[in-house]
């Protein structure tokens, strides 16, 4: 099996010392299995939302039926609702990765046992790890990543399998897996260790870029430069998590200064403004919101950040005027949610409740949490009201939602 020619440059990766130690011997030793992953839990992830609907409302929630393959996995991860794409049934997707990896010999109980590593198995692991991170199942993520060590084992390289891949060289490991592998350490007791992995990842990406400049097309160089930006954004996210706010903002500013796409540059400006607001950095907050232009495809975001400036100074009525002047669209839950929050802080509880109950088509977690919270302030028959909100929305929500956000037990 050979990688498709057009994507060969995406498989380039510096050879590790561990690889060199076995493939460049006079008689290469290519029989050993170094990387032996396996599923670490034999308990399927529950659909807690569907279970609660059955318990509380005697209602059966029908989830999508998909083929048990990678196409089915993609269908579960992204669903369409009212014409919009949104994150889908991620818990079901994790369960499907369990089945697919089990079928390939890397299921429960197989960690530490030899199995065949292929492009397909690594793609499935990369997908599974991203799902576990999205669902915040960090302990399981860390346990299952242990088998991959530092992603430098000989059997992670194409050249370790000359009978299968001929003279091709490169890595079997998807770049998305490398990103998760580096970031996962910030959810452990040693979050600073993530920076060390990010350092190594960035160093390797820069080495590949130098190689591409000498041997490949502009397209290949551009692809790897985008990957470098992804690593730098990962570093900035991790620095924010570690409360290194100045370093985080400096790095995001550097990324923004090199960004050529105006929409992406605008998004980074807004991100920097929000970080500055969170840490109370008035000077940088005003700097990044200076001269906002409506000449963008996402005018709602511009209005939202103009309103944020008023919120920063406690001017909630002015913020509400800014949001209202945007011509609120039913599908823009961000604007509706922020408008309602401004009403709350202005003492207009009933108006805020009216927005939460009527003015959105696609429910999302912040909106629903706020809807429940406002009802706690206004409703007399609170228990029944929460059950009613749950019943009205449960069929619109994917299995990644936690029913506890409805506070049904209180």
From TrEMBL:
- Provide the coiled-coil residue spans: none
Q: Which GO terms describe its cellular component?
A: Golgi apparatus; TRAPP complex
Q: Which domain of life is it from?
A: Eukaryota
- Name this protein carries in UniProt: TPR_REGION domain-containing protein
**Protein species of origin:** Syphacia muris
